[in-house]
Amino acid sequence: MALRVCHSIIRSSLRLSRLCNVSAPLENASPFLRIGCAARRSWNDGIGLRFTPVCFITSDTFLNRLVKGNATEADGVLDPYVTSVPPDSGEQISLLVKVPDQPANPKVLKVAVIGAPNAGKSTLSNQLLGRKVFAVSKKVHTTRSRTLGVITDDDTQIILLDTPGLTTPVKVKRHQLEKSMLVDPWNTVQEADLVLVMVDVSDKWACGKLDNEILKCLTQNPDIPTVLVLNKVDLLRNKSKLLEYTAELTCGVVNGRKIRVKTRTGPPRADKGQVRGPEAGEEGREVGPTDDCEHQTGLSREQQRFLRTQRGWSHFKDVFMLSAVDGEEVEPLKRYLLVEAKPGSWLYHSEVLTDQSPEEVCTNIVREKLLEYLPKEVPYTMTQSVDLWQDRDNGELDIAVKLYVAKETHMKMVIGQAGQMVGRIAREAGEDLCHVFRREVKLRLSVKVKG
């Protein structure tokens, strides 16, 4: 089977080379394009295969494992042991400090997931975990601090470090965001064994250039292996653009090798060093470095000016293309992470799913619904407090959360006509909590204006 999978990958790359106008014959092309596709099997009347060129794999180690048959079968499904979050804080704390149940030959990998706000980091982390424990919404800055998830599969443990979107001190001050949003991504990268850099390819302002804060972070930590993850490919109409974006975001180099793609034709892009779109100044002017940034990153002004002329990072080890929201092509990335794990002791017991307390999980999911359904600045100005957390005799978990709003008008928005809005938020948040805690949850929300 492993040999057949390898042949499938090679055959699919033949089709990709024809579709994408590779500028050199296949036998002379770089390994990046020779093995450029992960194949998805689909039988028609017992014969034939259908290939989807959505995931690039360049790691020699990963390919060797495929050939030797040590990786999971292509038509198999990874089914890691996914546990629930204990609904009792004491149980969760005991579980987090419990001595890990080490297998005979344990392997471990700490993976930091970074990217610009709303790139899909938490959505991908939830898909990899197989359970929704991280809050997600369409609005930016849903994740406010670093959170941890644990994937335990056989003898391997993957520690996922989900981070807030990389931002600047100016934006943190302007929008009154938590300081954790400024420091957590940087600190998390420094403790990781591997970094996943997520880019939203459906965002026309982000798909052709890495965010400047991401480039600063990568430059500050050049020795940590990095993998580029192009997300939301399902929203991209012209899939041939993916190779163009890949070439730009990687500076044409993956795993230390040049990639060969047909030269782009069309109107030139904006001048280098000039930021355009929503993240620029009010008139699309250049955004210069600040003293706060210099203090935070340790990079000089000259280094930061140079980074502003760069469009990508030339040290990516591999590239994956996927859609995190529907799980498309997430399994190959999960298998890749399992293969990349190195011998080492587990950090957590196999029953641990996240380091969040039950109350934190609850307030994060409630905030997700607030962000999803309330307009503009309203959800960002709200705070929460858990007033009741009680187990009922019938096994139901009874939770009461009080929502504090800044204005009377905000309270009316949260409650909605005849209480429909707050009722909807409570109902949907309660359903998510049922899946996290694996028990019935009765969630009640009340609203009060801040005193």
* Rg on CA atoms, Å: 23 Å
Unreliable runs: 1-55, 57-82, 263-295
Task: List how many beta strands DSSP finds.
Answer: 12
- H/E order of the elements? HHHHEHEEHHEHEHEEHHEHEHEEHHE
Structural class: alpha/beta
Average pLDDT level: 75
Straight-line N-to-C gap: 66 Å
Quaternary status of these chains?
single chain
The helicity comes to 25-40%
Strand content is 15-25%
| Main beta sheet | 7 strands, mixed
- Basic shape: globular
Number of helices: 15
List the helices and strands and how they pair.
Blueprint lengths: L1 H18 L11 H4 L25 H9 L20 H9 L9 E9 L5 H9 L17 E7 L2 E7 L6 H6 L5 H12 L2 E7 L11 H9 L5 E6 L9 H9 L3 E2 L2 E2 L32 H7 L3 H7 L8 E6 L8 H11 L1 E2 L14 H16 L9 E9 L5 E9 L2 H8 L4 H18 L3 E9 L2
Parallel strand pairs: 1-3, 1-4, 4-5, 5-8, 11-12
Antiparallel strand pairs: 1-9, 2-3, 6-7, 10-11
Helix pairs in contact: 1-3, 13-15
